[in-house]
Design a protein that fits this description.
The chain is an all-alpha fold. The chain is built from seven helices and no strands.
Length: 186
């Protein structure tokens, strides 16, 4: 039994699952697709709601795959794409700065490291004889993640900007906790 890899898979997978469901459903203090979508719009990822759903689905689904140890290179590719996009649009939008982006880099690196080592046993990849690991799979996952990020950013910036809405002054503005949506009048 590979206890260390199991602990890493459950921790990384669980972290991504929580972040994904924040975007998708507003769970764990998140803002759901509307609030996250407004934040994504401000980053140039348009339409924001669609990109929030895509990022949330990738994080939640990839997190589940990592935790189960299933399709590890595919999960790492998707999760790397989301983290690279977060780094490029929210964290390092004005260039790489010391002491920023550690969280995103750590999560992407851990997912990619599991691709290099394999998910270990117990995992569904191992149980089903589907384990794919090693340097080539890791480089393929990283390349696919970087390409996916570049496509998401490029496509998002081609879309016209939505009419601007001011966020409440006290609302936080991070990828995990974007500004709260404006109250709707009924």
């Amino acid at each position: 039994m590979d206890l260390g890899r199991l602990l890493v898979r459950l921790t990384i997978g669980g972290t991504f699952f929580v972040h994904g469901t924040q975007k998708l459903f507003g769970w764990f203090g998140g803002y759901g697709p509307d609030g996250t979508g407004q934040f994504f719009e401000s980053l140039g990822l348009r339409p924001g709601r669609r990109n929030a759903i895509a990022a949330g689905s990738t994080e939640a689904g990839g997190g589940i795959l990592v935790a189960l140890g299933l399709a590890t290179p595919l999960a790492a590719a998707g999760l790397s794409a989301v983290m690279i996009t977060a780094l490029r649009t929210a964290v390092w939008k004005e260039g790489i700065k010391p002491a920023t982006g550690e969280h995103e880099v750590l999560l992407a690196a851990a997912a990619l490291a599991l691709t290099e080592t394999g998910p270990g046993a117990p995992s569904l990849d191992s149980a089903l004889g589907l384990e794919r690991s090693g340097l080539r799979w890791t480089l393929a996952a990283l390349s696919a993640g970087a390409a996916g990020s570049a496509m998401a950013i490029s496509m998002g910036r081609r879309e016209p900007a939505a009419p601007a809405q001011a966020a409440p002054a006290a609302a936080p503005a991070t990828p995990e906790a974007p500004p709260a949506p404006e109250p709707r009048s009924t």
